[in-house]
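Workshop exercise sheet. Pairs work together: one partner reads the sequence aloud, the other fills in the structure field after running the prediction. Swap roles for the next sheet.
Pair: D.N. / O.F.
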Amino acid sequence: MNALSRTRHHRESSDFRRVATSLARTVRLLRQKKRWTVEAAAERFGVEPAYVRSIEAGRTNPSLAVLVSIASAFGLLPGELLLRNVRPSEARE
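Structure field:
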């Protein structure tokens, strides 16, 4: 199995989809709560507006650097951003 197929395998897992969906929902809800436009959020996150839209739609896999930037803009730690909508029973030890 080559590196690409291993990556694809992980992205197709239910764990990945659950976290990606949670992240998309969290970013969108927090942005709306702060009344930021996509453009304002993009500026705060240090990315392009199209990338914010992709994150909020769950169509992209943001890098660790981008996750840290997003969390910081919201005053959160990256782990809080990732686990915000995951029920405790779904979190693994």
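Discussion prompt: The radius of gyration is 14 Å. What would you look at next?
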